[in-house]
Amino acid sequence: MLEQNFQQDVINIQNISILPKLLDVISQTTGMGFVAVARVTEDRWITCSVLDNVEFGLKPTDELQIKTTICDDIRKNSRSVIIDNVNEDDEFRNHHTPAIYQFQSYISVPIMHQDGTFFGTLCAIDPKPNSLKTFKVREMFNLFSELISFHLNLVEQTIENKKPKKNL
């Protein structure tokens, strides 16, 4: 069972009503079979929302070992990673993550809280190569990441406003 704070993060993401449509648009636009929002910390990678058309097998609240993911690098550097074809990518062809999870194409962008802190990633993988290093794909991911951040902030504010106020 996830700790309360991580469980709340998953619930908050799932309360973003447009998210299933965003994941579907990403899949339809890119041809990527697995699309997810993950909560990523220094020692955790937790699935919050997922569209899985390639039977990768993750569902919300499932975890991956953080050190087996590229999302750990994204968290550390707050930068996107885009791989069209692992076999042709100088940086990632010998990386352990594609070998472990058997993917050829990958894209992941950071999702930042409105205050600038790191929340997690919007990511997609597929067992076949894809053309992801295009303006429209990169910008779609960046815009969707910002949209998720905006809606996450609204969800969190709504929850905070519903908490009983303490008398001073």
What does this structure look like?
The protein is of the alpha+beta class and about 170 residues long. The protein has five helices and six strands. It has helices at about 5-15, 20-30, 70-75, 95-100, 135-160, and strands at about 35-40, 45-50, 65, 80-85, 105-110, 120-125. Strands 3-2-1-6-5-4 form a six-stranded antiparallel β-sheet. Strand 1 and strand 2 form a beta hairpin.
Q: Concise description?
A:
The chain has 168 residues and is α+β, with helices and mostly antiparallel strands.
List the helices and strands and how they pair.
Layout (H helix, E strand, L loop, with lengths): L3 H11 L4 H12 L3 E7 L4 E8 L10 E2 L6 H7 L3 E3 L12 H6 L3 E8 L5 E9 L8 H28 L6
Helix pairs in contact: 2-5
How many strand units?
Answer: 6
Would you tell me the structural class of the helices and strands?
Answer: alpha+beta
Termini distance?
Answer: 35 Å
Radius of gyration: 16 Å
The dominant shape is: globular
Number of helical segments with 4 or more residues: 5
Roughly what percent helix?
25-40%
The major sheet is characterized as: 6 strands, antiparallel
Name the strands of the widest sheet in spatial order: 3-2-1-6-5-4
Mean residue pLDDT:
93
Beta-strand residue percentage: 15-25%
Q: Give, in order, the helices and strands.
A: HHEEEHEHEEH
Descriptors:
168 residues; six-stranded antiparallel sheet; globular
